[in-house]
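Minutes, project check-in
Item: structure for the 189-residue chain
Input as provided by the requester:
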Amino acid sequence: MDSALHTRDKIVELGRNYILTIGYHAFNYKQIATALNIKNAAIHHYYPLKEDLGLAVIEKDRQEFVNMIRLTANGDPLLGLEALLDCYDRYFKDGHKLCLVGTFCSAYHDVSEKLQIASAQYLNVICTWLTEVMQAGLESGRFNFEITAQEMANNWAAILPGSLQIGRVQGEEYFYQVMDSLRKSLKTK
């Protein structure tokens, strides 16, 4: 791997880690520069504006989500949802991090229009996929719930980020209770 690409990837990964841990507005280039033992100017070379780095982080996270979708496509709908719940479990276990969509949604009115659009598009990818999985589960008889697939997807999309945020305050028992409630909401067969 070329050194510049390696540095660029490290910057994005550290930026992502800070965003998930302390939020978009709370992190700065100096934290990343210190962690990588480089100068702030080196970060500005790759990402002239913090917004540029934020967009790269959203794109990286979105791409990882799309890859997860591909790995679970055409399988049991419950396995796809379990893969998503596993992601949230990792966020929680790894220092009580927040998910990227939840982080940008909570700061939505305080970020640039480009970041608003990118985070809204990412959320749309997630909600579209969730709706498709919920519908497939209903049609196959794997799931049994009384609301529409889109309503169930919207519920999951709202509850998952909230479980991480409130789980920071209420603790592990709360977080895992919410995860179990989501599973039960499907009334799986």
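Outcome recorded: The chain has a mean pLDDT of 94.
No further action items on this chain.
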